[in-house]
């Protein structure tokens, strides 16, 4: 990884932008050269029984104008089933070396079939074979049995592996986002915003177990959050 340059740990802008997504996009881009797996993010879902689950996934794309974050999933996986029942999720990007973090919340929808096919065709052949052979989140007799299924899928499909309908691209629409810059002494610089609405920002202090946290929260024209 590249060495950090002066200014990487700069706090949020003194005047917060009305729309935080261009800042989010810039932070993701700046993390790329210095953070391994910079597009890795925690994806949290809640199942039909109200049980939350989080796992790490890869952000496959984002649109700072439309407010989309893209990830890949399987309808039959635990997260796919949870999203089928409760199509809302939260994301967290955390880059410890940069002392930065971003939280995103909002609804999740299926991308168009053409987008899912396009992404599927960019995956390495061995990854597509393994995905076809895998019964996501279901018990397997043994590791050897799973490898046998992979070999059988290779013989069946060769180099032409169609995307199973259960494997698709998920798109998360950003409804709220929170960029956070960590500062010495736990004096975090934090903001909250909802894109697409006129917001005013203020600083507010909140207590932490160690030191002081300065928080900038977005509030509406009426002064209510």
The pLDDT mean sits at 77
Biggest sheet, in brief? 11 strands, mixed
Indicate the CATH architecture.
Roll
Please name the CATH topology. Answer: Pnp Oxidase, Chain A
Task: Tell me what you see in this structure.
There is one protein chain. This protein is α+β, with helices and mostly antiparallel strands. It has a single domain (21-181), classed as Electron Transport, Fmn-binding Protein, Chain A (Pnp Oxidase, Chain A). 24% of the residues lie in helices and 33% in strands. It has helices at residues 21-31, 78-85, 113-122, 125-133, 143-157; strands at 40-46, 52-58, 61-63, 68-74, 88-95, 100-110, 167-173, 176-181, 189-191, 200-207, 212-219. Strands 1, 2, 3, 4, 5, 6, 7, 8, 9, 10 and 11 form an eleven-stranded mixed beta sheet that branches. A hairpin with a 5-residue loop joins strand 1 and strand 2 (52-58). Residues 198-225 have low confidence and may be disordered.
């Amino acid at each position: 990884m590249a060495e950090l340059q002066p200014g990487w740990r700069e706090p949020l802008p003194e005047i917060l932008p009305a729309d935080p997504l261009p800042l989010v996009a810039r932070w993701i881009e700046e993390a790329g050269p210095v953070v391994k797996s910079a597009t890795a993010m925690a994806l949290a879902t809640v199942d039909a029984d109200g049980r939350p689950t989080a796992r790490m996934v890869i952000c496959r794309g984002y649109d700072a104008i439309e407010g989309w974050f893209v990830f890949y999933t399987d309808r039959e996986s635990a997260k796919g089933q949870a999203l089928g029942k409760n199509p809302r999720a939260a994301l967290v990007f955390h880059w410890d070396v940069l002392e930065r973090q971003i939280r995103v919340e909002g609804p999740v929808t299926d991308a168009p079939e053409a987008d899912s096919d396009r992404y599927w065709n960019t995956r390495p052949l061995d990854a597509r074979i393994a995905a076809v052979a895998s019964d996501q989140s279901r018990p397997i007799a043994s590791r050897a049995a799973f490898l046998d299924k992979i070999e059988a899928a290779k013989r069946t499909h060769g180099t032409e592996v169609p995307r199973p309908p259960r494997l698709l691209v998920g798109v998360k629409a950003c409804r709220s986002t929170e960029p956070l810059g960590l500062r010495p002494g736990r004096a975090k610089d934090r903001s909250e915003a909802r894109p697409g609405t006129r917001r005013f920002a203020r600083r507010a202090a909140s207590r932490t177990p160690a030191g002081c946290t300065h928080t900038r929260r977005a509030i509406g024209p009426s002064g209510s959050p």
